[in-house]
Amino acid sequence: MGNINILSIDIGGTYIKYGLYNTDTHQLTHVDALPTPTHSFEALAATINSLKKQFEEHLISGIAFSLPGTIHADSGLVIQGGALQYNNQINFIEVFKHQLNCPVSIENDARCAALAELWKGNLKNVQNGLVLVIGTGLGGAIIQNGTIYAGAHRYAGELSMIVTKSIRKYGAQAVLGNQVSIPLFIQHMSQKIGKSIEGPELFQLIEDGHPELNKEFQKYLDNFVQQIFNFQISYDPEQILIGGGISRNQFFMDRLVNTMENFYQLLPIQIPHAKLKTCKFKNNANLIGAVKHYLDSIG
Q1: 196 CB contacts (<8 Å, ≥6 apart)?
Q2: What is the pLDDT averaged over residues 243-256?
Q3: Which Pfam families would you find in this protein's record (predicted)?
């Protein structure tokens, strides 16, 4: 393959991350982010077109998309948009290959993270693994026999949809994605202390020992760890990786790992289990994996 530039765009429920990947240097550069339009696909399309123009001088050869939801990667159809329901039934490849006048690829965000880690990250040579991407919801990717398992209807790994309690009683809070969502967790904690607070300040307060926030954070971790245990029993992975922006927070990761190990100590029998690690590429895993999918599908 010659020296080409691929614009990688990771569309999240809260932010759009993007970066330029060069196939000669194998480097991801110009990484930045902007808020995700929340109200319409038309607004999202305008943002993407603007991003393409921003990189015109770099002679973009193609665009690799990572986004939430159930994706038919070969056809480009978003079956359902996950955190971005306005993407439902939109064919990204058909729309954007004409709007952007270049080849386009699309894949689910958590599967992109898994592709990056299988390619040259912490899943290299791993046969059975699980990637959990914590963000607006909970993205999941299941690796079986060294490849990503999508399932009969491409819903395998849609862990945000797992129902953990009565949906009649709890509504949207019955599903795991809303229980571990970082924006919703920050919103909940802001209500607890009676003022709006940003993520870095929140976790600093928790680390500094704020009693009420620590109590709520431990509830969050206990609930999440129980579900990670259920994943372990269901899929029996040899490695579980945590991705998403929060994976860069060492305090969060240390507490999560400690809570998980303490949980296993409570079990009446010893269960062999995967250790939790972060994605090697952390918050850039989706971008790099989107490139890998582009290279595999378009070349």
Answers
A1: 190
A2: 96
A3: ROK (PF00480)
